[in-house]
Specification:
Layout (H helix, E strand, L loop, with lengths): L3 E6 L4 H12 L6 E7 L5 H12 L6 E2 L5 H12 L4 E4 L5 E2 L3 H12 L4 E3 L2 E4 L8 E4 L28 E4 H6 L10 H12 L3 E3 L5 E4 L16 H16 L3 H19 L10 H15 L9 H12 L2 H20 L19 H11 L4 E8 L8 H13 L4 E6 L13 E3 L3 H9 E6 L14 E4 L17 H7 L2 H8 L4 E3 L3 H10 L5 E3 L8 H4 L2 H11 L6 E6 L15 H8 L3 E5 L12 E2 L2 E3 L6 H7 L2 E4 L4 H5 L6 E4 L3 H8 L13 E2 L2 H9 L6 H14 L7 H10 L29
Parallel strand pairs: 1-2, 1-4, 2-3, 6-10, 7-11, 12-13, 12-15, 13-14, 15-16, 16-17, 17-18, 19-20, 19-23, 20-22, 23-24, 24-25
Antiparallel strand pairs: 4-9, 5-11, 6-9, 7-8, 21-22
Helix pairs in contact: 1-2, 6-7, 7-8, 7-9, 8-9, 12-14, 13-26, 19-21, 20-24
């Protein structure tokens, strides 16, 4: 029997679950089991938990349906637990270093008490910023084990479940369980308080609570706030049945109704037609359960207590309005509060006339049949936005689809594609009125997210390198990124975010915290890898000038943040000479270095400026790359990939990565020009070990790309079809990628 069972619900936080589990497994005290509670087999959290369980026998995944809620997930963990003490840890929080050692020492000093309460650290959601000081427990709490009557103000009703450790036998003997519904911590903490006979307090924090950027779900407006009264009634009835003493009952009663009054005094939390009903029911509970001799607090809060006791909702509402007005005046200084514009004015529009015109257009109705697309900040008709645009014209012809491009890219747009030049009045008119906005980067800072509009972020790669706010701890990258606050303002415009694999889903959740919905549909730009045929491959090779019968090696290095310009890191002429007579290299530099030219000599063909990276991949027999996300897309073709990691250690330290590519590569890993040429001379670039590595890589990173991603997006977003109506993902083993030019390439 382990000393501690740590129960970790994971619903909605799979992107940070690995950090929570790492914080547990890194504890110096090792006598524990950890029970990650996941939505079910195949869910994002379940995949993370299964990986940990395979590596550490102390990890045992537990499943609980997501619709059953947080309380049911924790109860499932309790039923599976075998430890002497139970601890709860939210999947996006951390167990502090040394926490279990400190807790074990505390229990050794106090004996087996029913509950050990502990302070906790409250940290900003953004890991790059400092956290608040540890949240403290009521002062003058006894230092030894004690009866709750000695410290009646210490109750679990105002503490989260993860700020304590609970003796498992105490929980079982009293048949304690988390109540269903919202505010389950209130019900659980209150019931624990009522039942506990011996408690203790830990002197140091055990948990670092990382507040979510979106705030607590419980603070969102909605009818779920009525459930706070259910939990309050549940606890008060249990206290009465238990015959709780006057001082303990009074303290518990006061803390419960402090929470109730905060909700009643916050009109935005409850629908307007339910506020009076909430207040009246709260008043009935107050009068029915108020302990004899209970004294309400003083000041304005005491007035609220008295109004609640007599059911005076009209007076309570007037007091609430007066308090809110006073708060606004205090925040604004002296004088009346200033009223701002109805909508924020764009910050980076060109010219006063354009700003005024855009503001006027924002007052016009949204056009329900207008969609605006953009890719790579206007570099052309490309990537997933172009794939979705093409599919929309097929499946949703009633949608007018317009592509935004920079002026110097306008000539490259296909003649049958309607487009507008970024920064023009026409472009801003379209952005102001479009219902659908689709981009693989972000629209300009000044674009306003209007009610009723739908923004789709398609992304443009699977993240190996750190992205978004995860870049904050890497100075070179952070300096180039600019304002993270502005970045997150753009993220707040997203309604949907596309993902091509579960790894991406989890990393986007961390890198771009927001309220968007993740669509695990695959990347539409990768559809072509399954819809193209042999004649398509041959056509592209002819267009690029690939000699017939040659082995086309695509060399696609990524950008180095610590470099000031493009450096190949490899002498391509020497590579060709050493790799074999029939080898030609297709050089595709990162798009940061695309200057619109095309150069090359002999066996080196520069394809950096070619409009489509997908075409270039189709033409290539082999990919050689360092850390570019192109490897994840190219893996769909099931053709050999060779990693050239000549500066991996430097890149990892300066840019930051989400996993060690050298331990989970798509093929051979080489570190010198000689090693790279050798794998081509001896054929190991396509040998059995390369094939096996590629199969593992494809299973992990080609989960949702099957040739139907664009259709899924169009049906779900533009046509409004329900999730269950979109085409299901074809199993990896049943997909047929486009054929390679060389029959020797694919296994």
């Amino acid at each position: 029997m382990p000393r501690f069972s740590i129960i970790v619900p994971s619903h909605g936080v799979a992107g940070r679950l690995s950090q929570a589990l790492d914080s547990v497994l890194a504890q110096s005290f090792g006598d524990f089991e950890v029970l990650p509670v996941c939505d079910g087999p195949g869910s994002p959290g379940a995949e993370v938990a299964a990986g940990y369980a395979a590596r550490d026998g102390r990890v045992t995944p537990v499943h609980s349906p997501p619709d059953d809620g947080l309380g049911a997930a924790r109860n499932a963990g309790v039923r599976a637990a075998s430890g002497t003490y139970l601890l709860f840890l939210d999947g996006d929080d951390l167990l502090l270093p040394g926490a279990l050692t400190a807790l074990d020492a505390r229990l050794a000093a106090t004996g087996d008490v029913d509950v050990v309460y502990a302070p906790y650290e409250r940290a900003h959601w953004w890991e790059g910023e400092s956290g608040d000081p540890a949240a403290t427990l009521p002062p003058k709490t006894p230092k030894d084990a004690f009866s709750p009557a000695r410290a009646p103000q210490l109750t679990g009703a105002q503490l989260p479940a993860w700020s304590a450790a609970y003796r498992a036998d105490f929980v079982a003997d009293n048949e304690l369980a988390f109540p269903a519904g919202h505010f389950t911590d209130v019900g659980w903490g209150g019931l624990v308080t009522v039942a506990a006979e011996q408690v203790a307090v830990a002197p140091t924090a055990l948990v670092r609570h990382r507040a979510r950027r979106q705030g607590s779900r419980l603070n969102l407006p909605g009818e779920h706030h009525l459930e706070l009264l259910d939990q309050t009634e549940l606890v008060l009835v249990a206290a009465a049945e238990r015959g709780l003493s006057g001082s303990r009952f009074g303290a518990l009663f006061g803390q419960l109704f402090a929470a109730v009054l905060r909700t009643a005094a916050h009109p935005g939390r409850l629908p307007a037609n339910r506020r009076r009903a909430f207040f009246r029911r709260a008043g009935r509970l107050y009068r029915r359960h108020r302990p004899a001799g209970y004294r309400a607090p003083g000041g304005s809060v005491g007035v609220q207590h008295r109004l609640l006791a007599v059911g005076a909702y009209t007076a309570f509402r007037a007091l609430r309005t007066a308090n809110r007005t006073a708060s606004r005046l205090a925040a604004a200084g002296t004088g009346p509060a200033r009223s701002g514009p109805a909508r924020p004015l764009p910050a980076r529009l060109r010219g006063l006339r354009t700003r005024r015109r855009y503001a006027r257009q924002l007052r016009r109705p949204v056009d329900p049949n207008l969609a605006v697309f953009c890719a790579y900040w206007g570099r052309g008709y490309a990537c997933s936005p172009a794939a979705i645009h093409a599919k929309a014209r097929e499946l949703a012809p009633h949608i007018r689809s317009v592509f935004l491009v920079e002026a110097d890219a306008a000539a490259s747009v296909p003649p049958d594609v309607e487009h507008a030049v970024i920064g023009s009045r026409r472009a801003w008119d379209l952005l102001a009125r479009a219902r659908y906005l689709v981009n693989n980067a972000n629209f300009a800072e000044g674009v306003v997210k209007r009610p009723g509009t739908v923004h789709v972020q398609t992304q443009h790669g699977t993240p190996l390198k750190k992205m978004g706010v995860d870049q904050s701890t890497y100075p070179v990258v952070a300096a180039a990124t600019g304002s993270f606050t502005k970045l997150l303002g753009r993220v707040d415009r997203w309604d949907y975010n596309l993902s091509s694999n579960r790894h991406s889903t989890q990393m986007w959740e961390r890198a771009f915290p927001g309220s968007y919905e993740a669509l695990e549909y695959g990347y539409p730009r990768n559809d072509v890898y399954y819809t193209s045929r042999a004649d398509d491959v041959a056509r592209v090779r002819r267009e690029l000038g690939v000699p017939e019968g040659s082995l086309a090696v695509l060399y696609a290095p990524t950008h180095r943040d610590h470099h000031t310009g493009f450096e190949t890191g490899l002498d391509l002429e020497e590579f060709c000479a050493a790799a074999g007579e029939n080898v030609v290299v297709l050089l595709r530099a990162h798009y940061f270095y695309d200057r619109g030219g095309r150069s090359g000599s002999g066996r080196i063909i520069d394809v950096t400026s070619h409009r489509s990276s997908e075409d270039v991949c189709l033409a290539a027999d082999v990919l050689v790359t360092d850390y570019s996300s192109i490897m994840f897309d190219y893996a769909n073709l099931d053709r050999p990939v060779v990693v050239y990691a000549d500066d991996w250690d430097v890149y990892r330290e300066t840019r930051g990565v989400y996993f060690d590519l050298t331990l989970a590569p798509p093929g051979p890993v080489t570190r010198t020009p000689g090693e790279l040429a050798a794998v081509f001379r001896d054929g190991s670039y396509r040998g059995p070990s390369s094939t096996a590595a590629r199969a593992r890589f494809r299973e992990r990173f080609c989960q949702f790309d099957d040739g139907q991603a664009a259709e899924r997006v169009v049906r779900r977003v533009l046509l409004g079809e329900p999730p269950e109506a979109v085409p299901p993902v074809i199993p990896l083993a049943e997909r047929v990628p486009a054929p390679a030019a060389s029959p020797l390439v694919r296994s």
